[in-house]
Amino acid sequence: MIDIFFTFCLGILSGLLTGLMPGINILLGFMLFLPFVPLDPLCIVLYGIIARIGSQFFGSMAVLYLKIPGEASSYPVLMELKNLKGKDTFRAVMLTNIGSLVATVISSIILFIVLFYNFSKNIYFPILLKLSIFWLLVIIAIFSNRKILTNICVLTTATFINFYPEFAAIGKTHAQSIPIYYFNTQLILIIIFVSQLLWQKIPAASAQSLSRDKTKLELKKYIGKISLHSLFGCVLGLLPQIGATISSYASYTFERLRKNTALDKITASETANNSAAITGWLPLLLFGIPISASEIVLIQHFQKFNLNFEFLQAYGVSTIIILCLLLSGLIYFLIATMLNQKYYVLFGKLMSKKWFSYLLFLFSLLCFYLINSYDLKYLLIHLVIFMPIGYLLHFFRTDLLAVVIGLLLTDEIYYTTYRAIQIYF
């Protein structure tokens, strides 16, 4: 129980940091505190989901208070800020908080029902379908921006690094088959992702003045819309890698086509992305298939310590999961609602300072160095090699999804493809 409480607090901290700080995406926020999470599969899963909820919850707060999107799915809120006037901004804060809370409740209940009744027992999930999801992730990584050739080169290079031990052992006897050097893929990701903060220009936080006096929310008017877009996000959250972002834009577009107000559009987009953030974990929990970058990291972490998802079969596990998710949603709601605006402004100014990025970079490396007992030379070699690579990725504006899939998923894609050929051909 102490481990679960500690993990819960880490998830809350990661969710706050990820949602509010510009430049910190959910994958980086997930990796920063992952080494501190107890080596228990339930704790690791809880940490991932709670952190994910927070990143979606506070992404809108960063926009509404500081005019800086904390994560990609909050850009619809940024686009509608110019259409908010006077007390509408504070109403938007409250409605997005309520929408995110309702979305958390609805999607958590759906997750609980699916896990409790163990629907996966009656579902035949052939290897070809699993393989198709993996290759869909590769295709998304290639076409996620217009730099297709660059993304292919990144995937190829990351694959070579991933399979380096096998390449190094070619043509050698058994006594000589040990490669000179092994790369740690998770340490590579930490260096590449966190080093982006050192080179990117973080916009200075500018406070948005909010008025709270005599503000009517007209909650009855919005509760139906909030429930509808919660269910909408639950479905779109199953899309590999882009579920939360797509659901946010889809709900925003839906309300825009109906020519509704800016408050309607903001509430719909934030509600949908928060529900999608939770149901997006279903493929991983039911079938062990990751569909987002942070889930790929989680799978790699599981494999590193020989963990599996059999813990979901234990009595009461699904109840613990839903209770933790509901409690985290309530805590996020209270923090987002009760904290005064000046604390958000202060926090935003703090995180926009360059020295904060340097401290975060050093903190992340120190965590991996101490917790994994790495040799200092081992860490320095990684820095010398992958800091310049990280800069090149930043300079050419490369989508880091290709890096994640190349480093962490190519071996599973390869062996799954090989098994599929053996079975079906």
Descriptive account of the structure:
The mean pLDDT is 83. The protein has one domain. Helix content is 71%, strand content 0%. By secondary structure, the chain is mainly α. The radius of gyration is 22 Å and the shape is globular.
Write a compact overview of the structure shown.
This protein is mostly helical and 425 residues long. The chain has helices at 2-20, 26-33, 41-66, 75-80, 88-116, 127-143, 148-162, 164-168, 185-199, 219-236, 243-257, 262-279, 282-287, 293-304, 317-338, 341-351, 354-371, 376-395, 401-408, 410-424. 71% of the residues lie in helices and 0% in strands.
Rg calculated over all Cα atoms: 22 Å
Q: What is the helical fraction, as a range of percent?
A: over 70%
Poorly predicted segments: none
Number of helices: 20
Q: Kindly estimate the percentage of residues that lie in beta strands according to DSSP.
A: under 5%
- Please report the distance between the alpha carbons of the first and last residues: 48 Å
List the secondary-structure elements in sequence, H or E: HHHHHHHHHHHHHHHHHHHH
Shape: globular
Structural class: mainly alpha
The main β sheet shows up as: none
List how many beta strands DSSP finds: 0
* Average pLDDT score: 83
Oligomer: single chain
